[in-house]
Amino acid sequence: MSKVKQSVKLDLERIVFIGRTFEEYLDMFLLSEEELQGKKILDCPAGACSFTAIGNKLGLDVTACDIAYYHSGEDLKNKGLHDIEHAMEHMQKAKNNYKWDYFNDIEGLRNHRLSALQDCTNDMREYNGRYIPVTLPSLPFKNAEFDMLLSAHFLFMYADRLDYQFHIETLNELLRVSKEEIRIFPLVDLEGKRYEHLDKIISYLANVSCTVEEVKVPYEFQINANSMLKIKKG
Predict the structure, then answer these.
(1) Segment 36-82, tens digit of pLDDT
(2) Residue 94 exposure: Cα atoms within 13 Å on the Cβ side
(3) Torsions phi, psi for 172 (to 5 deg)
(4) Inter-axis angle of helices 198-207 and 164-177, to 10 degrees?
(5) Mean pLDDT in the chain?
């Protein structure tokens, strides 16, 4: 394997450590527990999501990776608690950019986020080997190591700070380590606009023999964030 170039780990202050629950993942990626059985799954980047913790409790084979995992679980838990409160304050002002049928209200949202953080950091303490520190666009995994790769709230969301070249390099790396399929959610930026280079990305993927589909999902919290990209390797 080629030597992965080392990057300086991100300062903890610059990491936002907030995550989604296992149930949110099933809805965001249009998945059922049954279809995940027997598959080796990577959540990249996983943040404070509880998908890995709950998935493994249910007998699934899930690995999480994130730049945040260079830091200790205890530091991340404290950071997560602070970040959730900070996010809830901002949410109060930006309530109209979101649909509230999933969480009902800010208290419901807070409970989901705290539950995900608790499950994630407890699991991290017990099964640290499932939580791999990485610095994208490089991943320390073997070719085709995972059957399925899930990537939430990262790639296209931060179009203002991650350029097209970064997206292509990251996608190439995700393709390298996955055997069958990649799902990316959502397809909008932080303002809820469809990622401006999405069609270019889809053409690029088609040219490297992937089958790509934009799929509507039963999850919409941020307005317009209700589709994922389903990429099947050729």
Answers:
(1) 999 999 999 999 999 999 999 999 999 999 999 999 999 999 999 99
(2) 14
(3) -60, -40
(4) 40
(5) 93
Instruction: Report the alpha-carbon distance of residue 97 to residue 151 in Å, rounded.
Output: 22
Residue 21 and residue 38: Cα distance in Å, rounded? 21
d(CA 233, CA 145): 14
Residue 7: per-residue pLDDT: 43
In the three-class reduction of DSSP (H, G, I as helix; E, B as strand; rest coil), residue 11 is classed as coil
pLDDT greater at residue 171 or residue 4 = 171
Quick: pLDDT tens for 198-222.
999 999 999 999 999 999 999 999 9
Tokens of 18: 């907030």
Give all strands (DSSP E) within 96-226, no chain letters.
Answer: 131-133, 146-152, 178-185, 211-216
pLDDT of the residue at 162: 86
CA distance linking residue 186 with residue 194, whole number of Å: 9
Q: How many angstroms separate the CA atoms of 68 and 49, rounded? A: 12
Q: Which pTM value belongs to this model?
A: 0.93
Assigned token pair, 126: 């017990």
Give me the sign of the Cα torsion angle 143, 145, 146, 152: negative
> Which residue ranges make up each domain of the chain?
12-232
The whole-angstrom separation of Cα 80 and Cα 150 is 21
CATH 3.40.50.150 fits 12-232, yes or no: yes
